[in-house]
Amino acid sequence: MEGSGGDSASPMAPVAKWKTEFSRVFQFYLDKSSPLLVHRWLGTLGVAAIYVLRVYYLEGFYIISYGLGIYILNLLIGFLSPKVDPELEALDGASLPTKESDEFRPFIRRLPEFKFWYAITKAFIVAFLMTFFSLFDVPVFWPILLCYWIVLFTLTMKRQIMHMIKYKYVPFTTGKQKYGGKKSPGGSPSHRG
């Protein structure tokens, strides 16, 4: 029988093969960029600057910028929030320590830094591409959108900071904790063995 064997090629086979190869190469470079924190964020800052300049010179697409701002605010809340919310999981025993006598549990984010970076970068690229279509240039009075976004940001951050204070967690670390050695009479730490 003709056409029923496995040797007949589908017309979509080259496209599927190219997609698989592209996905593999893209994932390879994404994995290589993982430890390069500063370089990744500088690249995202560059993409954001290009988007801001495009919106500034076109004097439009403010509704896209507002939507982008709301999306970034949502990502920021996920980045600043613990994976296990103490309010919801207090009975489960997997909550953050709230007293000095509680066992130390490291802060684990709901949205890890790499996923946060990747989502923000994709958002700026999508928003940049949307500026090429006049369909998305909805005429709005941008100062009202800006004021509304600032109020929304302020209220959301106030709520998040109050949550941090209530459950005594800090979502930022500055590296491994350093302990001072014994102080010698001169004031500098002693490094004797």
Topology:
Elements: H1 13-33, H2 37-58, H3 62-80, H4 86-89, H5 113-130, H6 142-167
Helix pairs in contact: 2-5, 3-5, 3-6
Rounded average pLDDT: 81
Largest sheet: none
State the helix count. Answer: 6
Query: How large is the share of residues in beta strands?
Result: under 5%
Order of helices and strands: HHHHHH
Principal-axes geometry comes out as globular
Radius of gyration equals 25 Å
Helical amount: 55-70%
- Helix/sheet category: mainly alpha
Q: Terminal Cα separation, in Å?
A: 83 Å
Q: Would you identify the regions where 5 or more consecutive residues have pLDDT less than 50?
A: none
Number of strand elements: 0
Structural account:
The chain is an all-alpha fold. It has six helices and no strands. α3 packs antiparallel against α5 (113-130) and α3 (62-80) runs parallel beside α6 (142-167). The chain is globular and about 65 Å long. 6% of the residues are buried.
